[in-house]
Design brief:
3 helices; alpha+beta; Metal Binding Protein, Guanine Nucleotide Exchange Factor, Chain A; 196 residues; 9 strands; 2 domains; six-stranded antiparallel beta sheet
Length: 196
């Protein structure tokens, strides 16, 4: 400094330091948010049985209104006006809350109901069946064991190879196509889709 005045050389040096500081802060900020986004993605990608169940407030934020209405309100979608009723792609249907694989496309068939219909789940141990006498009917409600999500109903069906049909709501599921299963953490479930 020359008599309290900043020279152009000193101004340039100060500007360089300020610029480096700003770039460093922005870089640290970007890295932090990148890793935060990765952690958020892990919360909803793949299935981890050790991952805690999301709170009701989190579900209200994360799910679309129709999904929340189905899984927490016990709602039913309009036939032929839902995402998966006529989906013919190969893959797995996973719980919209936990990501747990519940049904495969190999067990899906056109039941004429306008909703996704399956002959059987991946494992009956993943589901809970409850008597449902609402709407003046006697039905068997199907819920997921882990997240307690309402997914649909189970009916006897003599035309099905299992003698049963699971008539479900698209809003209760995410569909993971076979080509994305590895990338989304479902590689271990690929053998379920091998044709027998």
């Amino acid at each position: 400094m020359n008599g309290g005045r900043i020279t152009s050389e000193e101004r340039s040096t100060i500007s360089t330091y300020i610029g480096l500081f700003v770039v460093t802060v922005l870089g640290v900020w970007a890295i932090y948010f990148f890793f935060l986004a990765q952690e958020k993605q892990k919360e909803v990608t793949g299935f981890d049985p050790k991952r805690p169940l999301p709170s009701d407030a989190t579900l209200r934020r994360r799910l679309k209104p129709d999904q929340y209405f189905v899984v927490r309100g016990g709602g039913t979608e309009t036939p032929f006006q839902n995402e998966f009723w006529n989906n013919e792609r190969t893959g797995i249907y996973v719980d919209v809350i936990t990501g747990e694989p519940l049904f495969t496309s190999l067990d899906k068939f056109d039941g004429g109901t306008g909703r996704p219909t399956f002959t059987k789940p991946i494992s009956k141990d993943l589901l809970v069946e409850k008597l449902d006498s609402s709407h003046d009917m006697q039905r068997t409600e199907v819920r997921t064991k882990r997240s307690d999500a309402h997914v649909g109903h189970l009916f006897p069906d003599p035309t099905s190879p299992t003698g049963q049909r699971y008539v479900l709501n698209s809003a209760a599921f995410h569909f993971i196509p076979i080509e994305r299963m590895k990338d989304e953490g479902y590689e271990a479930f690929l053998p379920l889709l091998e044709k027998k």
